[in-house]
Design goal:
The chain is of the alpha+beta class. It contains four helices and ten strands.
Length: 190
Amino acid sequence: MKKIYLFCTKWWLFLTELPPALLLTICIYYNNMVENPGKLYPLMVFCIAAMILIFLYFFRLISISTEEISSIGLFSSRDSAVIEKDTSLVITMLKGGKIRIELDGRSKAPGFSWIKGGEYEETDINLYRDRAVGGAGTVRRVLTFFSVSAEDADRLLSNESFSKEYDLFTISSSTENEHRKISVRFTETI
């Protein structure tokens, strides 16, 4: 199964790895000069553990395939949703080099246990929501993943409003509250 991955963390946040790495380098350099029985090994282990924890904390991805969308990362929301007929993948371009990825669709089961016994009316809800780092290039990558032509992707990003039907989905774009919103509405399950 083919997937596309979007990063959720800006690269400069990983610069917080530098202080423990610098301290680890100093510990390795001065380790032979220390005469304690344990030398500087406990501090080295602490620095390595801190570097691993910082990396795991900031490492977050969004995985998009033709079947599902999910958040990946030890400290992420780990949310996921199935992409099927009558769902919409909505990409909103935000300021500051961020994009919001949403999957809208119909809820098939009630969210509250006290509703499960009675009748339940299906409603349109937001099935998945997360933010990723990127701009027009990232949006173009997501669109080409779903086989949208390069010309249509450019029209979606540049025109005030644009809509086109493909075999399995319909693409459209609009501008709301000064944010570009691109929607991929699935008419069939891929």
